[in-house]
Amino acid sequence: MSETTGSRGTAAWCGLALYPFVLTVPLFASPDTVPLLRALGVALSAVLLVGVARRMPLLALVVALLGTLVATALQPSGGPYHPSGPLGPAGPDGGYDGGRSVTLLAFVVADIVLGLLVARRPTRQWVTGVVLSVLAQAGGIAVFARGESLAALATIALLALLVSCMIGLFVRERAEHASALRRRAVTEAVTAERLRIARELHDMVSHGIGVITIQSGVAARVVETRPAEARAALEAIEQTSRDTLRGLRRTLVALRRADPDGDAPLTPGAGLAELDVLIAQTADAGVRVDLSRTGTERPLPPDVDRSAYRIVQEALANVVRHAGVAACQVAVAYEEHELFLEIVDAGRGAGARSSGTGFGIMGMEERVRLLHGEFGAGPRPEGGFRVTARIPLPEEGAA
How far apart are CA 236 and CA 240, in angstroms? Predict the structure, then answer.
């Protein structure tokens, strides 16, 4: 990459060095040469400035303006003056004087470089370029143009300069708008990724911490009177701590690993197939879970499977922490076009849940909304709390 950049820089400076020599070659062509051909030769010599114009457009503009003035001053004289031509004198063959053609075409080249300067450089630089262009073109036309062609040349030069500036400003605005859109997209992607990580960490840790809290309380109460139950509670705490720690390690490894797609699961393997393990952990925390599965089970997209598991996990964690009941019900229904989840308990309802920050319910709702589904959470009329989620499913072949 550095070698390519160096070779391009060398070619750009070589083109700048050759420009003065190539510029003067068409000016010393035979007097019989068509004047327009001499003018085209002067204009095409500016191709050597392309490399410099990409790197330093202000320098390329200064060189182009100086080259234009030199080309106009060194032009071969044309035929005798004929006022009928709108651009000045005409030669014996009826063509316009080469000096006028050289002046116009060379100034057009300078205007193209000016447009590039306006599009790519800060305001101070392109304003300086506009001032230099106006001064150089006005001076060149005033000194080298004939009286009758002065107004026509000045008008055309001014129009060309304005057009180049307008095109440059348009390109500049488009580039700035595209840059703003890219920055906004990056910001939104970072925010979405932060929310995704926050949801994963919350759902992963909250259930384990809830189980540990319940079991440690049990162990503290029965450690002297029922040591066997205290030992079982401590073993459950140890196992839950190990599982939570493994999940955290997987998350940290996933965060450290570069992921070009940006959608790798933070905790591989977490899905509805893990519900039995989750239910066993919840039972260890003192809450029996009655699980019912309906419909034909089938493979689910990874994001749907992972989100469904996290929703059940967070809902059960809330039951353990807040409901104050010994049992709850979990229903998983594989319907034709959607997955339906329902977690119901007969506990204290929304009173205990509303005292916290509400990140758990917020995270569940965000997961369902990202999957274009429907989410509901609230107290039941007959008492207790109910969480529901409907997640659209693709066709069986698309899964």
Answer: 6
Please tell me the predicted confidence (pLDDT) of residue 117. 86
Question: What's the pLDDT at 257?
Answer: 61
Whole-model pTM: value is: 0.49
Where a domain ends, among 183, 209, 240?
183
Please name the helix (run of DSSP H) or strand (run of DSSP E) that holds residue 368, with its range, or none.
Answer: helix 359-370
* CATH number of the domain encompassing residue 355: 3.30.565.10
CA distance 50 to 64: 11
Residue 346 main-chain phi, psi, to 5 deg:
-115, 35
Structure confidence by residue, pLDDT tens digits, 239-277: 778 777 777 777 677 666 645 444 444 444 578 888 888
- Is 379 within a domain? yes
Where is 279: in which H helix or E strand?
helix 275-284
Cα distance between residue 190 and residue 392, in whole Å:
26
Q: What is the pLDDT of residues 305-340, one digit of tens each?
A: 888 988 998 888 888 887 788 889 999 999 888 999
In a domain, 194, yes or no: no
What is the radius of gyration, based on Cα positions, of the chain? 39
Please indicate, yes or no, whether residues 170 and 46 belong to a single structural domain of this protein.
Answer: yes
Instruction: Please report the sign of the dihedral spanned by the C-alpha atoms of residue 42, residue 47, residue 51, residue 55.
Output: positive
Token pair listed for 83: 């006022």
Retrieve residue 172's tokens: 């500049």
The answer as to whether 353 is a domain residue is yes
pLDDT at 73 over 80: no
Domain of 296 in residue numbering reads as: 287-399
Tell me: pLDDT of 380 over 90.
no
Q: How many CA atoms lie within 13 A of 252 on its CB side?
A: 6
Residues 35, 13: Cα–Cα separation, whole Å:
30
- How far is residue 34's CA from residue 44's CA, in Å, rounded to a whole number? 16
- Three-state SS for 340? strand
- Which of 140, 157, 183 is where one domain is finished? 183
**Parallel, antiparallel or unpaired: strands 374-379 and 338-345:** unpaired
